[in-house]
Records
---
Amino acid sequence: MELTFQIRGGDFTSAGTASSKVRRTLKELGIDASVIKRVVIALYEAEVNIVAHAYNGQITASIDPEQVFLKLVDEGPGIADIERAMTPGFSTASQQVREMGFGAGMGLTNICRNADVFNIHSIPGKGTTVEITIQIK
Amino acid sequence: MNSDIHIKPFHHALCIRQEVCIGCSRCMRVCPTEALRVINGKATLHPEWCVDCGECFNVCPVKAIVVEDDDISQIFSYKHRILLVPSIFFAQFEEKLTLDAIKGILYEMGFTELCTVEQGADLLVDEINKYVGEFDGEKPVISSFCPAVVRLIQVRFPSMTDRIIRLIPPLEITAQYYRSEYEKNGVPLEDVGIFYVTPCAAKIAAIKAPVGGYNSPINGVINMSELYNKVFLAYKQKGTNENEYCNLIHSSLSSTGVRWATTGGESSNIHGRSLAIDSMPNVIDFLERLENEEIQGVDFLELRACDMSCCGGILVQDNRFLVKERIDKRAEELPARHALDESFRQVCSGYIPMERVEPKAMVKYHADLTIALERMEEARKLRKILPDIDCGACGAPSCEALADDIVCHRATLEHCVLMHAHEVDPDMMEKIWGKERFIKKQVKK
């Protein structure tokens, strides 16, 4: 089962659409609530990252009987220092974004905490790819 | 995963009389859990999905859906016959039929004691506030008052069952109180019959098969609409004799209690941020938002299945707005705490906690994830073929429901009446529904 979503940078009103559709799908499949929760937290954070930082992006959620695999590819400024971006509390968010309740600097940390496997690749000036795997059993 | 499913089926208080049903599909269209289908010209219920909300009962044009209550004559198998009456019951009658007159008529019917149901509410307010204040799980705490909502959460929002408050509703507190009083006075419990007048079907199901490891002391449930007719008939035929009614009437009630079953009756007494939401579509919408974590910082939720809460109960006779008006009027005359409150606190405190409500998640495709994934994939393909106008002529409430039924081998693609009609007369069908809608299915076929 594969679900794909197109994300537009700066569209905060639609942020969360992908994670709520994925939630519904996992629920209809009868997947354990604790697994759904981890998937949704990780996906939501990654989705908001695209909205907040990139120009546009695509999310693919692949569900099989063993795992949920999420791939988020964006075109955007990229991340120059990934290690620094992964530090809890580190944020580049503008005041405007913070006022909307985003940009606390916990995004990547939260994704990492909820993922079984987490990969991030970035080319500054081009974009970022995030891969998240969460085991179902 | 899903280990809680199939432990025991729900007890249902709504029943479809097959011989009366005309298969019009009205009930199928309003069911909030899509638990109804039309098969062989009759409405057919999926028992594990039904939450006893009664939406189907409200829309049935031929009264084919009935509430399975207890016959009033069974009260005479007990020496002491206690009737627990909700304030909603009294509020259905016009003002000229006074509270005392109604009580007199009920006493003449054979009840030996009448008690207002919401006497347990005053004590419960403090218990709920304590519970919500000390609750260390995920908030909001959700009220256990409306049994249709409790079932809805069990079936459609199973991850939220731990939010349901582990305290019994006021009806059960009051029932426990009177049972204890008789026991204390040395009356053998087999002589004590406790009866409840219900405004809805969900309460019957909840009394017969309670959640949270609880057993109700209520011996029988009487249909409010039938009792209304009996009282009204007695009044029309004989008038009232107010001198003869029983002196064992416990009508002691507070303004909090009398309002409890109306919208906001609970939430207005709870500290912190508490919300009151009524009617099934609103409740479902709110729970979906809550599940999506769109709603933060709410401490307590009062959720009721019926519009205007119990004033709009399916067995309530008068207009729900008028019922609410009479209740509000009565509340103005009542004290903040009722006379028996102290006694209730002494007797009932130990009875109030219950265990957690167990989840009973709907199995949409299959309990085995591999099969469920295959079926979901297949259903998604079918949805692209189906016309997506939810006409219901296939006997399922929506194209999505038909697709799910097909992949679960409960229906076939031939059930789609629109696709047949297009084959017979494409011009006419396209004139109404457009070419596009039918092109996509021809490509796929």
---
Amino acid sequence: MRTDDLVGLLSTGITPVRRSTAARRFGISLPIAAIGATALMATVFGVRPDLGAVVNTPIFWEKLALPLCLAIGALIATVRLARPGARIGAGWPVMTTPVLVVWVAAIMVVFTAAPEDRLPAILGHSWRSCPFNILLLAVPGFIATFWAVKGLAPTSLRLAGAASGLVASSIATVAYCFHCPEMSPAFWSIWYMAGMLLPAALGAVLGPKFLRW
Amino acid sequence: MYSAERRLKALFVAGLAGNASEYRSFLSELTRHLRGYLRKRIPQLHDDVEDLVQEILLAVHNARHTYRPDEPLTAWVHAIARYKLMDFFRTRARRESLHEPLDEHDDIFAEADDEPADARRDVGKLLGHLPDKQRLSILHVKLQGLSVAEAAQLTGLSESAVKVSIHRGLKALAAHVRRIA
């Protein structure tokens, strides 16, 4: 087929384009990520028994704020990277601010603690399993976000994959907060971060293969 | 450059609203720009230029719902063209590393002639590989110029099924093109 004929084919019989494709796709993938992670958390790990008491403490909400802010930043970055030629842009400050805040808090906690309390504050009771638990909860969101992004023609596949992985893992971490008993910023600053970065790294590896179009 | 951006953008945005003739002008002018862009970048692969032009045209068409009128059209188109060019380089590198000859698809290109502006890969033939629903919807609406309603009557599909089949068919066509690239 000559290029002129292809131009004719493509332009003949076109209909107006719907504008809300991105909203529609993320409107499907985000609930899957949130509901999937919450359901997995409730069935595999279980909601923490003292949830009714801890929701009245500020520290619980501070803990929830870390993945929630990251999720918003990662979503901004992903929505942008899902389209041709876009950059992370406004996603950066929204993603980095909560990380800086939690690291400052973690350093303060560690420095003000008695020397023998420092390591327990960092390692908690669940440092070995925490990142992998988050990884498990991120699986439904990971698949759903990749699906949403692939349909929007991303051109930086590695970055788009990483941002998609971070959307899934930060939403998974929000859900995980309702199970996880760890209450020290020093713990979150390392193990929650590791749990969120693991799927992001996986996304960077898988992006070029599965987001290709 | 600035005036090209303005003119192309006006044509493209009219195309998004469903204006076929403006969209056709946009694609024709884009074709010329793409040829220039690619001939400069892969002068040693002259024979691949027209195939890549067609692949990028298909990609631009299939991704047109991702364009936002508040951004420069040049940047959006360039990102797609560059992405497809990089993809072409990667595919080529992989194929060469497997020691497969570059002209392995000779049979598919059998009809190509010596005219430099001819594509080696025949998109028209690739249409034949699509499932009937998609192939017939594209044939009636996009090649014979029938309306969606007429195509629906001919194929026995609903009008929205015809539209969806065209959309999916062109996406599948782009995927075929990519595999053969």
